[in-house]
Amino acid sequence: MDVRVNVGGGVKILVLNGTGEEVEKLVDQQLNPGNYRFQWDGHNRLGSVVGNGVYVLVINQPSGRMMRKVIVLR
């Protein structure tokens, strides 16, 4: 996933399941403006493989919030 950070500051990227529960936290750090690439390997925060389904990536940064759907099929 490519993310453009327009304004430096705290950036948090979360993976949520269909019921809105946090599955994994990909990023929670201060970033400078620029382009970044992040990957989610399909595991939850306990290291287990997640099941098939629709997940939502929530990208919170100083310039706003963006959401992207991700479909996991194995």
Structure, explained:
0% of the residues lie in helices and 59% in strands. The chain is mostly beta strands and 74 residues long. The protein has a single domain, classed as Immunoglobulin-like (Sandwich), CATH 2.60.40.4070. A four-stranded antiparallel beta sheet has the order 3-2-5-6, with no helix packed on it. A two-stranded antiparallel ribbon has the order 1-4. Strand 2 and strand 3 form a beta hairpin. The mean pLDDT is 95.
Task: From the alpha carbons, calculate the radius of gyration and give it in angstroms.
Answer: 12 Å
CATH topology: Immunoglobulin-like
Sheet of most strands: 4 strands, antiparallel
Contiguous runs where pLDDT drops below 50 for at least 5 residues:
none
Rounded to the nearest angstrom, the distance between the terminal CA atoms is 19 Å
What is the overall silhouette?
Answer: elongated
**How many domains would you count in the coordinates?**
1
Could you give the count of β-strands? 6
Q: What is the name of the CATH class?
A: Mainly Beta
- Order of strands side by side in the largest beta sheet? 3-2-5-6
- Based on the coordinates given, report the CATH architecture: Sandwich
User: Number of helix segments?
Assistant: 0
Order of helices and strands, N to C? EEEEEE
Average residue-wise pLDDT: 95
What share of the residues lie within helices?
under 10%
Q: How large is the share of residues in beta strands?
A: over 45%
Structural class from helices and strands?
A: mainly beta
